[in-house]
Amino acid sequence: MKFTATSRSVQGSSASRRLRRAGRVPAIVYGGKSAPANIELDHNEIYHALNKEEFHASILDMDLDGKVEPVLVRAVQWHSYRPQVLHVDFQRVDASQAVSTKVPVHYLNADQSPAVKLAGQVVTHGPAELDITCLPANLPQFIEVDLSGMIGNSRVHLADITLPIGVKYVPHGEDVNPLLAQAAAPKGTGSDDDAAAPAAPAAE
Q: Are the C-beta atoms of 30 and 92 separated by less than 8 Å?
Protein backbone atom coordinates (compact mmCIF):
# COMPACT_ATOMS: atom_id res chain seq x y z
CA MET A 1 0.00 0.00 0.00
CA LYS A 2 1.19 3.49 -0.80
CA PHE A 3 0.60 6.88 0.80
CA THR A 4 1.95 10.38 0.32
CA ALA A 5 3.87 12.46 2.86
CA THR A 6 5.47 15.90 2.84
CA SER A 7 8.44 17.16 4.84
CA ARG A 8 7.52 19.36 7.81
CA SER A 9 9.95 22.06 8.93
CA VAL A 10 7.87 23.73 11.63
CA GLN A 11 7.46 21.89 14.93
CA GLY A 12 5.71 22.41 18.24
CA SER A 13 2.16 22.14 19.53
CA SER A 14 1.00 25.42 17.97
CA ALA A 15 2.28 24.38 14.55
CA SER A 16 0.61 20.99 14.94
CA ARG A 17 -2.72 22.61 15.76
CA ARG A 18 -2.46 24.80 12.66
CA LEU A 19 -1.73 21.73 10.55
CA ARG A 20 -4.77 19.91 11.89
CA ARG A 21 -7.03 22.90 11.24
CA ALA A 22 -5.77 22.85 7.65
CA GLY A 23 -6.70 19.17 7.24
CA ARG A 24 -3.16 17.88 7.74
CA VAL A 25 -1.70 15.40 10.25
CA PRO A 26 1.72 15.81 11.88
CA ALA A 27 3.80 12.63 11.82
CA ILE A 28 7.34 11.33 12.20
CA VAL A 29 9.39 8.67 10.46
CA TYR A 30 12.44 7.17 12.14
CA GLY A 31 14.83 4.22 12.02
CA GLY A 32 17.32 3.00 9.46
CA LYS A 33 20.46 4.94 8.65
CA SER A 34 18.70 8.29 8.25
CA ALA A 35 17.84 10.74 11.02
CA PRO A 36 14.23 11.00 12.23
CA ALA A 37 12.18 13.22 9.92
CA ASN A 38 9.12 15.31 10.77
CA ILE A 39 6.48 14.89 8.09
CA GLU A 40 2.85 15.77 7.45
CA LEU A 41 0.02 13.81 5.87
CA ASP A 42 -3.33 14.53 4.28
CA HIS A 43 -5.91 13.76 6.96
CA ASN A 44 -8.55 12.20 4.72
CA GLU A 45 -6.05 9.94 2.98
CA ILE A 46 -4.43 8.67 6.17
CA TYR A 47 -7.77 8.41 8.03
CA HIS A 48 -9.22 6.03 5.44
CA ALA A 49 -5.94 4.12 5.18
CA LEU A 50 -5.76 3.58 8.95
CA ASN A 51 -9.26 2.10 8.92
CA LYS A 52 -8.01 -0.75 6.72
CA GLU A 53 -6.63 -3.73 8.60
CA GLU A 54 -3.86 -4.38 6.10
CA PHE A 55 -2.45 -0.87 6.53
CA HIS A 56 -1.32 -1.82 10.04
CA ALA A 57 0.30 -5.13 9.10
CA SER A 58 1.96 -4.40 5.76
CA ILE A 59 5.18 -2.89 4.52
CA LEU A 60 3.98 0.48 3.21
CA ASP A 61 5.43 2.57 0.40
CA MET A 62 5.77 6.10 1.72
CA ASP A 63 6.18 8.71 -1.03
CA LEU A 64 8.03 11.48 0.80
CA ASP A 65 8.64 14.48 -1.43
CA GLY A 66 8.86 12.22 -4.48
CA LYS A 67 11.14 9.60 -2.89
CA VAL A 68 9.57 6.24 -2.03
CA GLU A 69 10.80 4.24 0.95
CA PRO A 70 9.34 1.26 2.85
CA VAL A 71 7.91 1.90 6.33
CA LEU A 72 5.71 0.34 9.02
CA VAL A 73 3.05 2.04 11.13
CA ARG A 74 4.29 2.05 14.72
CA ALA A 75 1.85 4.25 16.64
CA VAL A 76 -1.31 6.24 15.99
CA GLN A 77 -2.80 8.93 18.22
CA TRP A 78 -6.54 9.48 17.80
CA HIS A 79 -8.76 12.24 19.14
CA SER A 80 -10.57 11.08 22.28
CA TYR A 81 -14.05 11.38 20.76
CA ARG A 82 -13.81 12.79 17.24
CA PRO A 83 -12.97 10.69 14.16
CA GLN A 84 -9.68 12.54 13.85
CA VAL A 85 -6.09 11.34 13.53
CA LEU A 86 -3.77 13.50 15.65
CA HIS A 87 -0.34 11.99 15.03
CA VAL A 88 1.30 8.95 13.38
CA ASP A 89 4.69 7.31 13.93
CA PHE A 90 6.33 5.34 11.12
CA GLN A 91 9.48 3.22 11.15
CA ARG A 92 11.76 2.79 8.15
CA VAL A 93 12.27 -0.79 7.03
CA ASP A 94 15.48 -2.47 5.92
CA ALA A 95 14.86 -5.50 3.71
CA SER A 96 17.79 -7.33 5.34
CA GLN A 97 16.69 -6.70 8.93
CA ALA A 98 13.92 -8.57 10.76
CA VAL A 99 10.96 -6.52 11.97
CA SER A 100 8.79 -7.15 15.02
CA THR A 101 5.14 -6.18 14.81
CA LYS A 102 1.58 -7.29 15.48
CA VAL A 103 -0.51 -9.06 12.85
CA PRO A 104 -4.26 -9.79 12.96
CA VAL A 105 -5.55 -13.31 13.51
CA HIS A 106 -8.43 -14.51 11.32
CA TYR A 107 -10.43 -17.38 12.80
CA LEU A 108 -12.18 -19.46 10.11
CA ASN A 109 -14.81 -22.20 9.82
CA ALA A 110 -15.75 -22.58 13.48
CA ASP A 111 -19.40 -22.99 12.44
CA GLN A 112 -18.41 -26.00 10.30
CA SER A 113 -16.64 -27.83 13.13
CA PRO A 114 -18.02 -30.99 14.82
CA ALA A 115 -17.91 -29.07 18.10
CA VAL A 116 -20.62 -26.73 16.80
CA LYS A 117 -22.54 -28.91 14.34
CA LEU A 118 -22.57 -32.17 16.31
CA ALA A 119 -21.95 -31.24 19.94
CA GLY A 120 -23.86 -27.94 19.91
CA GLN A 121 -20.98 -26.17 21.60
CA VAL A 122 -19.70 -22.61 21.28
CA VAL A 123 -16.20 -21.87 19.97
CA THR A 124 -14.55 -18.84 21.56
CA HIS A 125 -11.54 -17.11 20.08
CA GLY A 126 -8.30 -16.05 21.72
CA PRO A 127 -6.13 -13.06 20.81
CA ALA A 128 -7.14 -10.83 17.91
CA GLU A 129 -3.45 -10.16 17.17
CA LEU A 130 -0.14 -11.96 17.56
CA ASP A 131 3.30 -10.46 18.05
CA ILE A 132 5.64 -11.84 15.42
CA THR A 133 9.09 -11.26 13.96
CA CYS A 134 10.25 -11.88 10.40
CA LEU A 135 12.04 -10.34 7.46
CA PRO A 136 9.97 -7.65 5.71
CA ALA A 137 9.49 -9.85 2.63
CA ASN A 138 7.85 -12.54 4.81
CA LEU A 139 5.48 -10.26 6.71
CA PRO A 140 1.93 -11.66 6.47
CA GLN A 141 -1.06 -9.32 6.42
CA PHE A 142 -2.82 -11.76 8.78
CA ILE A 143 -2.56 -15.27 10.21
CA GLU A 144 -5.37 -17.74 9.51
CA VAL A 145 -6.53 -20.27 12.09
CA ASP A 146 -8.79 -22.97 10.63
CA LEU A 147 -11.18 -24.23 13.33
CA SER A 148 -13.14 -26.67 11.17
CA GLY A 149 -11.55 -29.70 12.86
CA MET A 150 -12.47 -28.80 16.42
CA ILE A 151 -14.47 -31.41 18.35
CA GLY A 152 -16.35 -31.06 21.61
CA ASN A 153 -14.35 -29.56 24.48
CA SER A 154 -11.21 -29.28 22.34
CA ARG A 155 -8.65 -26.50 22.34
CA VAL A 156 -6.36 -25.03 19.70
CA HIS A 157 -3.00 -23.63 20.79
CA LEU A 158 -0.39 -21.82 18.74
CA ALA A 159 1.64 -25.04 18.49
CA ASP A 160 -1.31 -26.67 16.69
CA ILE A 161 -1.07 -24.36 13.67
CA THR A 162 1.65 -23.69 11.12
CA LEU A 163 2.87 -20.11 10.94
CA PRO A 164 3.78 -18.66 7.53
CA ILE A 165 7.29 -19.35 6.28
CA GLY A 166 9.91 -17.26 8.03
CA VAL A 167 7.53 -16.01 10.73
CA LYS A 168 8.23 -16.55 14.43
CA TYR A 169 5.96 -15.84 17.37
CA VAL A 170 7.27 -13.40 19.99
CA PRO A 171 6.04 -14.65 23.39
CA HIS A 172 5.00 -12.51 26.33
CA GLY A 173 6.85 -13.78 29.37
CA GLU A 174 6.51 -17.56 29.67
CA ASP A 175 3.43 -17.81 27.45
CA VAL A 176 5.15 -19.51 24.52
CA ASN A 177 2.08 -21.44 23.40
CA PRO A 178 -1.01 -19.22 23.78
CA LEU A 179 -4.53 -20.59 23.59
CA LEU A 180 -6.15 -19.54 20.31
CA ALA A 181 -9.59 -21.14 20.55
CA GLN A 182 -11.64 -23.50 22.68
CA ALA A 183 -14.97 -25.29 22.39
CA ALA A 184 -17.35 -25.55 25.34
CA ALA A 185 -21.04 -26.00 26.07
CA PRO A 186 -23.03 -22.74 26.24
CA LYS A 187 -23.23 -21.30 29.71
CA GLY A 188 -26.07 -22.73 31.74
CA THR A 189 -26.31 -25.94 29.71
CA GLY A 190 -23.07 -27.83 30.31
CA SER A 191 -21.96 -30.16 33.04
CA ASP A 192 -19.24 -27.69 33.98
CA ASP A 193 -21.92 -25.32 35.29
CA ASP A 194 -23.45 -28.07 37.39
CA ALA A 195 -20.07 -28.96 38.80
CA ALA A 196 -19.39 -25.35 39.67
CA ALA A 197 -22.69 -24.91 41.51
CA PRO A 198 -22.54 -25.10 45.34
CA ALA A 199 -23.78 -28.30 46.95
CA ALA A 200 -27.27 -28.20 48.48
CA PRO A 201 -27.30 -28.24 52.31
CA ALA A 202 -28.03 -31.61 53.88
CA ALA A 203 -31.53 -32.11 55.22
CA GLU A 204 -31.84 -31.91 59.01
A: yes
